[in-house]
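Running low. Any example?
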Amino acid sequence: MSGLPSCAIDIVISNDTGSNVLGLFPSDLQWLGINEQNYAMFMGQSVIQTAAGPVSRTQLFIDMQVLKEDGTMVSECFTEDAIIVPSPNQPGDLQVRLSGGGMRNHLYFATAPDNATLFVACKKDGLVAQLPVV
């Protein structure tokens, strides 16, 4: 892969089955030390369809890996399609990065009736073992 393989940061991503691109904040790129001049995976401007209508965003590809909160590996490294989204307006505003489609190609996700928990596993049998009996 092109890019800077030695740079990495931990970020929290909200799984969103309606999103097919990963949202990154400008501060994420600053922490990674990447920009359009030093990172070959910038793809320029793309029109993205949102619930509020189409918007133009900078698109790039990044290598990512899903980890548990304790740092344990959940998935192998994979390439994810990403866009740069505006930072929250106020310092205390919630920062939510929506997931892209790539992580759904590497993990199994499920919910159960009357249960607000999102169950995630690397293998289907691992997912079934987590589900409550209803």
Remarks:
- The chain has two helices and six strands.
